[in-house]
Design brief:
single chain, elongated, two-stranded antiparallel ribbon, 2 domains, MetI-like fold, 307 residues, mainly alpha
Length: 307
């Protein structure tokens, strides 16, 4: 396992290089606008704009800028944001806790409620609970997160006045963003758990446990659940990565001061340095989550061995 994890970490380096390279060139070539003009203002003299371009290194050819950026990354330097007037790494560290808090709570809600809904749906197959869970899962994967967020704001914030409309002002301010962000993942996990549980409950060892007189609750929780969770954990790990991407929209809707809103703001003001830093961090987190899921997969299923 240790050698496998080491190889996975080693392979993550070229993957991150590809991500960095794509973001670097796509953002500079395809995204219109000059960040120097945005910083200086529309009425700034041309000399001031050119001075800012020289300070940002934008007067150099793209290959030169690319090599300088990679050399900075090799030293652990993500660059300095000319817009925020702060080191990109410091800005990431300031925004990272908010995103991790939101994503962690959303994943916890999705996993706990999704697994519970999947178990109930499988055990009570073809009952009204099964149909209700299926309807909820279809709605969860079909409703766009931005629309769901706006509807929750209109109902619980504007209509009932129970929760704040946005921001990170207190414990209650995370409730609506977490529910919005977890909806899609909850539906996927619930459907996967239901399918896996239905298959597991048909296995011979489950029938043997029933024949020996084991109570149904013990069969479901002690015998079937662990095996049924193996594919669920895999899909949940992948959904955690997608959840980080979904946080861009949800954080914007709820004005949540995390990495997602930082990404949108940086794109709007053409802050190359910050966009590259956020994209690199998202990619690194996604790869790390997948590696941890592989390790957890082997723990849940002793038959799995990584050479």
């Amino acid at each position: 396992m240790a050698s496998y994890l080491f190889r996975r970490l080693a392979l993550a380096i070229p993957t991150l290089w590809v991500v960095v390279t794509l973001v670097f060139f796509i953002f500079r070539v395809l995204v219109p606008g000059d960040p120097a003009e945005l910083i200086a203002g529309e009425l700034a003299p041309r000399e001031v704009i050119e001075s800012i371009r020289r300070q940002m290194g934008l007067d150099q050819p793209l290959p030169v800028q690319y090599v300088r950026y990679l050399s900075g990354l090799a030293r652990g330097d993500l660059g300095v944001s000319k817009v925020f007037q702060q080191n990109a790494g410091e800005q990431l560290l300031a925004r990272l806790p908010a995103t991790l808090q939101l994503a962690g709570l959303a994943m916890l809600l999705a996993f706990v409620l999704g697994v519970a809904a999947g178990i109930v749906s499988a055990v009570r197959q073809s009952s009204w609970l099964d149909y209700l869970a299926t309807l909820g899962a279809v709605g969860g994967v079909s409703i766009p997160s931005f629309w769901l967020g706006l509807m929750l704001i209109m109902l619980f914030s504007v209509g009932l006045g129970w929760l704040p409309t946005g921001g990170r002002t207190g414990p209650d301010s995370i409730i609506l963003p977490a529910i919005t962000l977890s909806a899609y993942q909850l539906a996927i996990i619930a459907r996967m758990t239901r399918s896996s549980m239905l298959e597991t409950l048909q296995q011979d060892y489950v029938r043997t446990a029933r024949a020996k007189g084991v109570r149904e609750r013990g069969i479901v929780l002690a015998h079937a659940l662990r095996n049924a969770l193996i594919p669920t954990v895999t899909i949940a790990g992948l959904q955690m990565g997608y959840l980080l991407g979904g946080s861009v929209i949800v954080e914007t809707v709820f004005a949540w001061p995390g990495l997602g809103s930082l990404m949108i703001e940086s794109i709007r003001i053409r802050d190359y340095t910050m966009v590259q830093a956020v994209a690199l961090l998202f990619a690194a987190m996604f790869l790390l989550i997948n590696i941890l899921v592989d390790a957890l997969y082997a723990y849940l299923d002793p038959r799995v061995h990584y050479a």
